[in-house]
Please model this.
Amino acid sequence: MSRIQNLKHTHPPSTGRNSKKSAKKFAPGGHKNLKSQRADEVAETAAPERLCGVLVLNHNFEPLNICSIQRGITLLMLEKAEVLRFSDQTVRSAEDEHLVPSVLRLHETVKRPLPQLKISRKSVLARDGYTCVYCGSRESLTLDHVFPRHRGGETTWENVVCSCLKCNNKKGARTPSECGMRLPHPPRKPRYVPYISFPRFVSAVRRSEWREFLEGFGKGLEQW
Ligand SMILES: [Zn+2]
Model:
């Protein structure tokens, strides 16, 4: 049941498709050094991360990790997990072709310390859906201190939002109400702190084949 499904005899020997080579490598994610990035000054189009790999759920179905396909297959080979969903990818071993797991559930509960959710540029952009909270643009995104830093505004979940450069420049050192701009909701710290990094969790919820396993945990993420 938990074994990788063998497709050797169910697929025609050669379908003419590009041979599915080895499993995709886990994308390193392009982490950037955030040290030099100052809120309100860095602008770039920040698309949500495109996730590949295997979603790993704890025995109680809580999302634990997104691992490489190779690692996911290893978990199956070691009989440490069961497959809840296969992807439409396949991988070839020496003799066989296998369906690639997309969602795994561990047979045993893994206990981990609760993660901390620190504010970061990536996390704020993810919380706000990579969308300017003032105008809805997805271009040239930066961070904005709702109550300006120059006037004592702090870098907190409750005071930093995702803004496009245009709105950021328009707002300048004023509050939204001082310049006729409007926040759709007061910003706040996400309620759910995933084991997966927050931006990756937000991206994972958007992956349609994973959504049903994650959205119950991510309630409230879409309030913005
Ligand atoms: Zn804007």
About this structure: The first strand starts at residue 54 and ends at 57.
